Amino acid sequence: MTGEPGDWRLVDRAALGDDRVIGGTIDEAGKPVLIGERIEQDWSASTRPCSVVWALGTDGWQRDELGCPRASVSAAASLPDGRVLLASSRDLWIRP
Q1: Greater confidence, 6 or 94?
Q2: What is the 3 state secondary structure string of 8-24?
Q3: Do residues 35 and 50 touch, judged by C-beta distance below 8 A?
Q4: CA 74, CA 36: separation in Å to the nearest integer?
Q5: Which value, in Å, is the radius of gyration of the alpha carbons in the chain?
Q6: Between 13 and 84, where is the model more confident?
Q7: Domain boundaries, the chain
Q8: pTM of the prediction?
């Protein structure tokens, strides 16, 4: 990820795997935090979206699973105290 707020560019798409980036924000240190989804297939061949988040750390991108809730994560915002809020229409996650 390079650039600045309002003009970010993903340089190494392979670092994120097959998942799809939906949006993002920046953390207290000014590093990007991206939200996205991956598609999971179950035993009956049905699919469902699962939410993921990536944070740029000292060793590169760190990926975390947020599960497969009814509503996927759809928004990210930086809070005044430096934490990052991730939200769907049903759930909220707070990242330190």
Answers
A1: 94
A2: EECCCHHHHCCCEEEEE
A3: no
A4: 8
A5: 14
A6: 84
A7: 13-95
A8: 0.79
